[in-house]
Design brief:
The protein is mostly helical. The protein contains five helices and six strands. The chain is rod-shaped and about 115 Å long.
Length: about 200
C-alpha cells in the first residue's frame, strides 16, 4: 500500500514534470518564433525604408537632369556662366547631398574637333584638350562642370564615351530618353591617393 502510494506520487510528479517541460518547450518555441517573426518584419521594414530613400535620392538626381535638358532646350546656346548660374540656383548641395559635380558633355563629330578645341581655348582655357587622345568618329568631352574648381578641374575635357561603363550609361540614356545610372567607376576627379568609388547619372 505504501509502495503503491509512493509509486502514484512519483508517477504524478513525473507526469507533472513532463507536462511542465512540454509547456516550457512549447512556450519557448512560441516566444522564439515570435521574436524571429518580429525580427523579420523589422528587417523588411528597414530594407523598405532604405530602398525608398535611395529611390527618392535617384529621383532627385533625375529631376536635376531633366531640368538641365529643359535649360538646353530653351536656349540656342547655353554659355558657361549660364551653366554655373543654373547649378548654383539648384542649391543641389542641400537638396541632393553627396554629389561631386554637375557637368555637361558635348557631342563633337570628328570633323568639328579642331573648331571645338579652338573655341574652348578662346574662352580663356589655352591648355584645353580632349583626353584620352586618339582618333574617333565622335568625341564627348566634359565642357561644363560645376563647381569648376579643385578636383573637378581634372575632368575638364575628359571624353566620357571612351570608358566602357560610362559609355554604356550614355548609350542607355540616348536609347531610352531617360536618366541612366552607370555602374561603379573611378571618377576622373580622383587622385591616386584619394580614390573614391562613384557612379554617374546621365
Amino acid at each position: 500500500m505504501l509502495k503503491s502510494s509512493l509509486f502514484r506520487k512519483a508517477w504524478i510528479a513525473w507526469v507533472t514534470l513532463l507536462i511542465g517541460l512540454v509547456v516550457s518547450v512549447f512556450a519557448s518555441l512560441q516566444v522564439k518564433q515570435g521574436i524571429e517573426q518580429e525580427s523579420a518584419r523589422q528587417f523588411v521594414f528597414v530594407c523598405d525604408q532604405v530602398t525608398h530613400k535611395i529611390q527618392d535620392r535617384l529621383n532627385a538626381y533625375a529631376l536635376i537632369l531633366r531640368s538641365a535638358v529643359a535649360l538646353f532646350a530653351a536656349s540656342k546656346v547655353v554659355e558657361r556662366e549660364e551653366w554655373q548660374a543654373f547649378v548654383v540656383n539648384l542649391q543641389a548641395g542641400q537638396s541632393v547631398p553627396g554629389t561631386q559635380g554637375f557637368g555637361f558633355s558635348q557631342v563633337i563629330p570628328a570633323d568639328r574637333l579642331a573648331a571645338h578645341i579652338a573655341r574652348i581655348r578662346a574662352e580663356g582655357f589655352p591648355g584645353y584638350t580632349i583626353y584620352p587622345p586618339g582618333k574617333r568618329t565622335l568625341y564627348t568631352p566634359v565642357v561644363y562642370l560645376e563647381p569648376f574648381r579643385d578636383r573637378n578641374l581634372r575632368a575638364f575635357g575628359y571624353d566620357m564615351y571612351t570608358e566602357p561603363v560610362r559609355r554604356a550609361a550614355m548609350q542607355q540614356a540616348c536609347d531610352t530618353g531617360a536618366a541612366a545610372l552607370s555602374g561603379k567607376v573611378k571618377l576622373v576627379q580622383e587622385t591616386e591617393t584619394e580614390v573614391q568609388a562613384g557612379t554617374l547619372m546621365v
